[in-house]
Amino acid sequence: MKKCLSLFAFLKAALSKAIVSKVTVLKVVLLSLLALSLSACASLEVESKKRFSEVSNQVWQEYQGSNPFTSKAEDADSLAGTLPDLSPSGIKAKQQKLAKWISEIKQFETAVLSEQDQINQQTLLHRLQNEYDQIVYKGHYIPLTSEGGFHTSLAFLPSSTKLKSKQDIEFYLQRLSAFGVYFDQNIAWMREGIKTGYTQPKVVLEGYEQSIDGLVAIEPEQSVFYQPFTNIDFLSVDEQQQVQNRAKQVITETVNAAYISFRTFMLEEYIPAAKNDIAFKTVPNGIEFYKNRVKHYTTIDMSVDEIHQLGLSEVARIRAEMEKVIAKTGFDGSFSDFLSYLRTDPAFYATTPKQLLMEASFIAKKMDAQLPKLFNVLPRTPYGVAPVPAHIAPKYTTGRYISASSDTDAGYYWVNTYALDRRPLYELEALTLHEAVPGHHLQISLTQELKDTPKYRSSYYISAFGEGWGLYSEWLGLEVGFYQDPYSNFGRLTYEMWRALRLVVDTGMHMKGWTRQQAIDLMTENSALSAHNIQTEVDRYISWPAQALSYKIGEITIKRLRKKAESMLGNDFDVREFHNQVLKNGSVTLSQLERQIQRYIDARLQKQKLQDSTN
User: Fold this and answer.
1) Are 142 and 200 in contact (CB under 8 A)?
2) How many CB atoms lie within 10 A of CB 123?
3) Which helix (H) or strand (E) holds 252?
4) Which residues have C-beta within 8 Å of that of residue 508, sequence separation ≥ 6?
5) SS (H, E, C) 537-573
6) Fewer CB in a 10 Å sphere around the end CB: N or C, the chain?
């Protein structure tokens, strides 16, 4: 294809010379050859598109079929009744498959693919390369973060499991029966981590047993894993009883036993042996892996030093804005005094979980009414507001969006109602706009609802894009009447400061020798986040290197592109169309976002030029 395009360019240049020299015969010959080259290029482009579609779809089918969580029950060799094979041979086989799939997708020259196939290729490679890199750098040695791990991820199985047939029931029971082996395999790798000094830092594991205890039910019917068995009305009463008795036995003898064994391992073996320092650079190949994670999460080429300095400059800028907002409140005291006032005055906190949920729901519905002013395309998927599940709430973040698992489900904006004195109301507008609308719910739902888009793309989430959009969405509230209360606006700035501080403390702790206390102090001195939230967040950054860098870098990119579009298009700029252009291709890398916004600007300018020429 590249040779075809080169030939076309050569003939076009030769024709221009012939026209200038007025050589008629040569012009005829070159025109004929030019037409033939155009036809050949077009045929090759069609063939390339067809071939890429065939290969990428085959790769995706093989990928899904090899993953127990996406394997189809109706397939002859279905893995729907299993859990991932984390044995050494299983890990090796997965790595070999990933290498094969990456090679097959990379064989296509990006330049000759259509715009949509370029995005498809880039997305699929981003997805596959991440899993390959995780194996290369032995990410399976640390299958947990400060928030949770493989053991808490399994707790999402029941909500995504629909028992509609006897085969579904058998697969789910088989999967529950596999918990013992799956836990043992994870523990085996964690023991390898202990041997090689590749563990989570001890400090982030304090109280970790809480994330395990909530998943052990003394009464098996109270277990989260029992829930799917409460809705099997297609069976007779006797059959239901038999199935439910089997489920109770598996939960008691296998599921609970696996969690209890893991709890013992964590308390008696892993945590005592965990490393004392917090820097990721001190684990084997940690410096290289951290740089790899920076590239994965930001999707752009920025050095650690560049990111650190960007964070410092953003902290200074936002701090100045915060000082102006404090002046508007009439508060008499220092910046530190104001933060202390916000953290300690009961007026800024809900007194019951219901009050917090009602406040969040009201803000969400208020924003729903403003969406048509900002968007010309809205998702059909609805969303609800619900508390973070009790078994994970103590070490969980303040809020989170959980996307719909099927087209019969809604998305959910989770609000953490644990420890209400740590969930300030002045942050709730920013949190809601980020997690619900116009943030994650709107963006993720639109991606899931994309037409004529492969599933590997519509089901994928690129952190720099998604989290950048979430932070941009907080700022959008200013344009539709939110943050009228200066305390709420200070809460918004606190959230923006929070993301800027991440650039500093994440790079600082992992690569520049910062201590955990330095990070806590910097965040305490520059934001109104509660002490509990700050500690939870810092531990998250320690245990999940580089992920937190994606938010601010993504937001800065979106804001910069909007400013560029506004400047170049002038009165022709339409914020609703701009948002459509940002979101229309789903979750993309920031380099792709740059390209699609530039194409949008160029197309609008060309249209303006044509209109001007006809007037």
Assistant:
1) yes
2) 24
3) none
4) 308, 514, 518, 519
5) HHHHHHHCCCHHHHHHHHHHHHHHHHHHHHHHHHHHC
6) C
Tell me the sheet residues that pair with 259: none
> Helix (H, G, I), strand (E, B), or coil: what is residue 383?
strand
Q: In sequence order, what are the beta bridge partners of 144?
A: 149
Phi, psi angle pair for 389, to nearest 5°: -55, 140
Residues written for the chain: 615
On whether the CB atoms of residues 83 and 90 are closer than 8 A, the answer is no
Q: How confident is the model at residue 469 (pLDDT cuts 50, 70, 90)?
A: very high
pLDDT tens for residues 310-354? 999 999 999 999 999 999 999 999 999 999 999 999 999 999 999
Segment among 37-41, 176-180, 255-259, 305-309 with least mean pLDDT: 37-41
Q: Backbone phi, then psi, for 411, in 5-degree steps?
A: -80, 165
3-state secondary structure of 407: coil
**pLDDT recorded at residue 29:** 62
- Is the model's pLDDT at 228 over the cut of 70? yes
Neighbouring CB atoms inside 10 A of 317's CB total: 13
For 346, the token pair is: 């009961």
Confidence at 232, pLDDT banded by 50, 70, 90: very high
Question: Could you give the dihedral angle defined by the CA atoms of residues 201, 206, 210 and 216, in that order, rounded to the nearest 10 degrees?
Answer: 60
Supply the pLDDT for residue 18. 56
Interior/surface letters 491-518, b for 16+ CB within 10 angstroms, e for the rest: bbbbbbbbbbbbbbbbbbbbbeebebeb
Distance CA 123, CA 465 (A): 12
Q: Compute CA distances 404 → 157, 384, 443, 468, whole Å.
A: 13, 10, 12, 21
